[in-house]
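Continuing from the previous page of notes. For each protein in this section, the sequence appears first, followed by its structure tokens. Read the first protein now.
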Amino acid sequence: MIRKLIGRIFGRKSKPGDHPDTWVKRHAEVFRASELGLDLQAVSHAAMRTCESLQQAGFAAYVVGGGVRDLLLGRRPKDFDVATNAPPEEVLKLFRRARVIGRRFQIVHVHHGRDLIEVSTFRAIQADAQTDAHGRVLADNVWGTQEDDAARRDFTVNALYLDPVRDQLLDYHHGVRDLKAGILRIIGDAATRYREDPVRMLRVARFAAKLGFRIEDGTRAPITGMADLLRHVPSARLFDELLKLLTSGHALASIQTLRAEGLHHGLLPLLDGIFASESGERFIQQALSNTDARIAAEKSVSPGFLLAALLWPQVLAAWQPRVAAGEHPMPSLLAAADAVLDQQSDRLAVQKRFAADMREIWSLQLRFERCTGGAPLRLLEHPRFRAGYDFLLLRAQAGEDCAALSAWWQSFVEGGDSDRTDLLAQPPGKGAPRARKRRGGRRRSRSEAQGPPQPSA
């Protein structure tokens, strides 16, 4: 039954003894992966088990996409995806912990312990695919051949198929050659591919920055004239892609590439604001540099903190005129924050939990100015103190007029009980207090129990 199913998928009858991918090899360059320098031991146990189970059931199964690309570059992949000729319902039968997700593009999530493998079925090239008025494909669950699947992937370096069981790598579009040359090249006609999915233009910027690759001329040429197509992408999908870009470990380079390719202006209010002023741009560059440094050090990154940093120059621009007009600082700050977030909502579906984090981080900046009485000690116990404190350090690091306030809080956080008593009697602006050596035996605050704060995203 399985062989008949495979025959229907591939459009030919399978023969006894045939491996499901035998015919494919006539259309692809075949390499021994280990001879290309790919370390098969670096393939996750979960990905290997997934491929083995599918192949033992008579299906083809390959690790595909960014995982293969990163292995060839000697990098550690963040995750592994598997592509197969088995339709989703057959994949579900083979794995106890598996479920289908997605509507426009169905995939199967297969769990092995804590590891998650995304398994997708080879997609067909659809000449008559259902699209919207701008050419974006709306339905994409027609199964096809591996050759079709390779042609539908975005870039040549992402269209490499690794069989980790047999140490083989299949390359349909000279991805190995482009990988060695450091070239990012889209598969097929660039304008057509961008029309099918405008988000690919953002992916060009992200991958070029992440890999340090040169964008091939034909891949770059249509972007400027087609950038407006991003306006028709659902806001939730744009938000997901933006988060990937900002947490790629190369956020600063990615934003600079977006600017160089003309993708920053008029598309996302958030990106417009990054380059609105010299001081705002300096602040954003510092925030993104800190973020990239944390990811390089394998530290966690808070999307709420990062988004708060990206929108802070716009919040300041909306808040300062209100204060100058005589409004109370805190209500006017919250009103400015709401106005900025509302402006983003038309293009970015910022999740409510991130928006709540952003508002708290912003409002804490005013509370840091209360440096007398019991306010500082109470603030240390605030659940978002650490994020707000890191944000204050970032503001000072980027050159905002809060260096004395930042120094005071650093001394207060790091100081002992007697140091804090002295600091409460000497608020910021009356010298630059320094913490004395800690004395033992005092009770540690919640923030200290978590470790010393760091300027971070």
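Done with the first. The second protein uses the same format. Note its length before scrolling.
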Amino acid sequence: MARALVLVFLMTSAPLLRAQDDPSWRQPFDPLRIVGNVYYVGTRGLSSFLIVTPGGGIIIDSGAADSVPFIRANVEKLGFRLSDVKILLTGHAHFDHVGGHADLQRLSGAQVMVMDADRLALESGVDRSALGARGWKPVAIDRVLKDGDKVTLGGVSLTAHLTPGHTQGCTTWTMEALQDGKKYQVVFTCSVTINEGVHLVGNPRVPAIADNYAQAFRVLHGLKANVFLAEHGAVFGLEDKARRASTAAGVNPFVDPDGYQRFVERAEQTYLKQLAAEK
């Protein structure tokens, strides 16, 4: 059976209006195995995750518009092709996550699936979130997802969890990975940062934004993560863990349940502090 793959591209947004020219977004980063059939194939600054299955490929997020050549190069270094990809998913509709969607759709022929609350943004190429940053090439949608929907390919299932706030359709993805006879719960966390200049109280673009973030934290607290991944490598310590993984035989630094809990707790405290200050 020919090898095929699931590609997962996720990036946790820093303040986008300030970080949109971050040079690390366009710096190459060697692909590496995270756990089981999950691999990192992104740039130094924007995460991309590859999940290998017997039945085809799924991509979650495509990075910025100029990320596609880097993603493609890393996929090919691992012995795969973009034409193996069958499904393209979205973490959330900001230009540094879906900027390459149209090109990846064209290169791979993949079906595009997106959470309902981010559908109009992806289709129109217009950032409809509270941030209102720059847009991207409009993308044709093949399937609209709801909270709790599963995307299954080649015996591998990913579950979509609606964790809104950063965008209205911000989606955290979970899956189970198997390595050396052990099962690991992998969480690809959607961003829960609050972009610079975005208000939680009296927000004219997204009036329910404070409640949306509260919903996201409830969901994230309820997830069980052995392997914590996020949309920017810096959020889950990619470079440090990659160095340790290359030298620590028998120990996988990406298995980090405590890191996941600390991340959620810190992000929630930042949200609560800003909400209290605005009130």
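What the second structure shows: The domain at 4-278 is CATH 3.60.15.10 (Metallo-beta-lactamase; Chain A). The first strand starts at residue 4 and ends at 8. We return to this in next week's lecture.
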